[in-house]
Amino acid sequence: GKGNYNHFMQKEIFEQPAVIGDTLHAFINPATQTIKLPDMPFSFADATRLTIVACGTSFYAGLVAKHWIERYAGLGVDVDVASEFRYRCPPLPKGGVALFISQSGETLDTLAALRYAKSKGQKIVSIVNVPESTIARESDVVLLTYAGPEIGVASTKAFTTQLTVLACLAVTIGRENGTLAKDEEAAIVNALTEVPKHAAEVLHHDEALKKLALDIADARDVLYLGRGLGYPIAMEGALKLKEISYIHAEGYAAGEMKHGPIALIDQSVPIIVIAPSDELFEKTASNMQEAAARGGRVIFISDGPGLSKLGDMASATVELPKVADFVAPILYTIPVQMLAYHVAVHKGTDVDQPRNLAKSVTVE
Ligand code: M6R
User: Fold this and answer.
1) Which of 31, 168, 184, 265 is close enough to 296 for a disulfide, judged by CB 3.0 to 4.6 Å?
2) 107 CA closest ligand 1 atom index
3) Assembly state and interactors (predicted)?
């Protein structure tokens, strides 16, 4: 049941500190502070390239993973949505590994993409939340998310636990490839271990986000901007808002604004900026300035250092804990989930069963 919560989605958002913790426990050895994935029948050090395929929110998890794996593990990654990948008949490298991400493990396009990759000789790894699912059964290696059943159609805890597993995978590949030094691994493991605590802190912004939701509920369009690891989170935030509140929203790479979408901006368009104070902060900040100068109402999601630099330029701010760059996407997901949730509740839409959508898409 929903317990004390009004909706499954709300319950699942609030479960995130616990289920991220459960997922970390499965893969981190607390004694050595190292990550240990299940044994695999192959080594990532032999892989020439990694192909990641998924749909919807799981696809955005793949985009975050691309950034992590290329940056920290030195392995080139292609990411695609399953419905495009499967019909393009892409050539796949000898000795390649293909990774499929699916909460349900039953998404038809993702399964078809898996079968295609298998027919092309790829080693098949999947990240699923349902151990007995078809995708799990057809994989060489299964990495589980320990999110527990996700009932709300809008995926929340499945996404942040997928990111948790993908972070562990990126570190493992980095170790095997020799691109991640022992102390770097220890620093990332340490940051990951603190994510449940920080996630719980982020949940304290619920009331503030509920108020902010009032400003968004009447908008016709909403833009979400981010760079680097923030870009997939911008797209995830936009997808959450679209699917449960029916407000048109787009997630954009902040640096792409001046290549077109900035023409949309006036006082009526709320702009949600996802900008932890990482190495790209100054760049994102200047994109935010451009948007604010055109009358856009900016909701700025950042940390203490970021807000003290730029907080006064925004119409509203959300302050998250200052964390290592690597783990920021996991935490910055939570406020955009809560914002979408409160907008939908305010509008009175069916949060857990939005129109036209099914929890698991088993048709083409
Ligand atoms: O079960 P899957 O992870 O394979 O599902 C993929 C998408 O259908 C799913 O993430 C969908 O986009 C969600 N409704 C997003 O909230």
Assistant:
1) 265
2) 4
3) Homodimer.
Smallest CA-to-CA distance from 60 within 329, 355, 283, 331 is with 329
* Ligand 1 cavity residues, CB under 6 Å: 55-58, 102-104, 107, 110, 153-155, 239, 243, 360-361
C-alpha atoms less than 13 angstroms from C-alpha of 180 in its C-beta half-sphere:
28
- Give strand pairing partners of 303: 320
The whole-chain average pLDDT of the chain stands at 95
**Residue 362 pLDDT greater than 90, yes or no:** no
pLDDT computed for residue 33 by the predictor: 86
Q: How far is the CA of 175 from the centre of ligand 1 (A)?
A: 30
Using the mean position of ligand 1's atoms as its centre, give its distance from the Cα of residue 179 in Å: 32
Angle (CA) 41 188 157, round 5°: 75
Pocket test for ligand 1, best of 7, 57, 241 (most atoms within 8 A of CB): 57
157 noted as active-site residue = no
ipTM: 0.99
The whole model's pTM is what? 0.98
**DSSP conformation letters of 161-184:** HHHHHHHHHHHHHHHHHT-S-HHH
pLDDT (tens digit, 9 = 90+) per residue, 281-320?
A: 999 999 999 888 888 899 999 999 999 999 888 999 999 9
